[in-house]
Every structure is written in structure tokens, then in C-alpha cells.
Amino acid sequence: AQSVTQPDIHITVSEGASLELRCNYSYGATPYLFWYVQSPGQGLQLLLKYFSGDTLVQGIKGFEAEFKRSQSSFNLRKPSVHWSDAAEYFCVGNDMRFGAGTRLTVKP
Amino acid sequence: DTEVTQTPKHLVMGMTNKKSLKCEQHMGHRAMYWYKQKAKKPPELMFVYSYEKLSINESVPSRFSPECPNSSLLNLHLHALQPEDSALYLCASSQGRGPFNYGYTFGSGTRLTVV
Question: Distance (Å) from the C-alpha of residue B25 to the closest C-alpha of chain A?
């Protein structure tokens, strides 16, 4: 089935460290990919999206993601994590199929 | 206005009660959605209204009944729920249906507890 996969259930990083959250997709054609963030008990906020064109996508809150067709990946990155980035992150594909999510914990 | 507004934020109801969740957007979006999210799980799609036509996830029990009075409003009527229906219910909207939707805008959700 066409879908997205997030291999990491939980990641812990220190504040100020760099972050990379992994997402792999299994679509035949160029997919439409999104990253959403969800703070505890809250709704979801769109961080960034990829449809076509430039493979490096800039989003809000200092996040970026790179679409790599050769690796079927759309990993989310941030150069320096802030404590407020602690949340659940979802990679989402075509027709809004959600990955399982990655929970980010930020250590002081 | 770039928001999806959901009311109430919290709801506690008994198994014999009838209640409704409400969702509103004024972005001119023509597709609206209800999602159910259990703790530590991704959201699961329940219903889609696209141009005020309903698409149903057939695994959703009939005790959940959606209603779309107009393109800006979406309700979810609840009747005879079970404790396992306790969850965060999220409403979302998009410009249109399908991969060209440019992403969904989500509300902050209604935390439902069935006792």
C-alpha cells in the first residue's frame, strides 16, 4: 500500500543540538508530502509541504525538509532545537495518510 | 481568518447522552474533515465533506453522525457512545479534496470523555 513510514517512535535531543526526523514514502509517482507538528493535547500545525520543484523546502519555526527521490525520503531538519520544539511530529502523504509519528523530547 | 474553530474544547458525556461537536472555518475551504485521535496514535479519518457531499469511512460506527449545514460549518452528532470512543476529535479543512489540497488546516480539537 502507498504510505509514509516514520521509523523512529521517540527521539531525544539536547537543546541547541541539530535535529533530523526521518520519513520514508512508498508512492510510485512524485508524492505530495507534508510535515505536521502536534503539541500535547493540541491540534496539528502544518510545518511545511512538498509538491514538486525545489527539493529543499523551508517551513515555519526554522524547520526545513529535503525530498530525496533516490532514497524515498522526506526528512525534517532543524539546525538548533529549542525546548518549545518538544512535540509529536507527523509525516503525511497523499490523501492525508499519516505516518505513525515521532515524539521529540528536548533535554535542557 | 486562517483558523478552524472547534467547540467545545472539552466534553464529558454519559453513554446515554446525545451531544454535538461543532467546527467552523471562514477560509473559503470547500472540504472539511472529522478525525479521531487516540492517545499516542496518529489521527484517523472518520468523515469527509467535499463541496458539501459526504464520504464515509465505513468502519465508523453509526453512533457518530456528521452534518454539514453549509460550506463553513461541520457538526458531529454523538449518540449512545461507548467509553472506547473517548479521544481527541479533530476537525480540518482544505481548499479542495485530494493531493492538490495544499495541506489541511486543523482545529485544536475537542477532548471527549465518555463515562
Answer: 15
Q: Tens place of pLDDT for every residue, chain A, 108 residues? A: 668 999 999 999 999 999 999 999 998 777 889 999 999 878 899 999 998 888 999 999 999 999 999 999 999 999 999 999 999 999 998 777 899 999 999 999
Distance CA A34, CA B104 (A): 10
Mutate to test the interface with B, among A90, A96, A98, A102 (most CBs of B within 10 A): A96
Interfacial residues of B (vs A; Cβ cutoff 8 Å): 4, 6, 33, 40-43, 45, 88, 90, 92, 98-109, 111
User: A45 at the B interface (CB within 8 A)?
Assistant: yes
Q: How far is CA A2 from the centre of its chain?
A: 18
Strands (E), chain B: 4-7, 10-13, 18-25, 31-37, 44-50, 53-56, 64-70, 73-79, 87-94, 105-106, 110-114
pLDDT digits (tens, 9 = 90+) for B12-69: 999 999 999 999 999 998 889 999 999 989 999 899 998 878 887 788 999 999 999 9
Quick check: B109 and A41 CB within 8 A?
A: yes
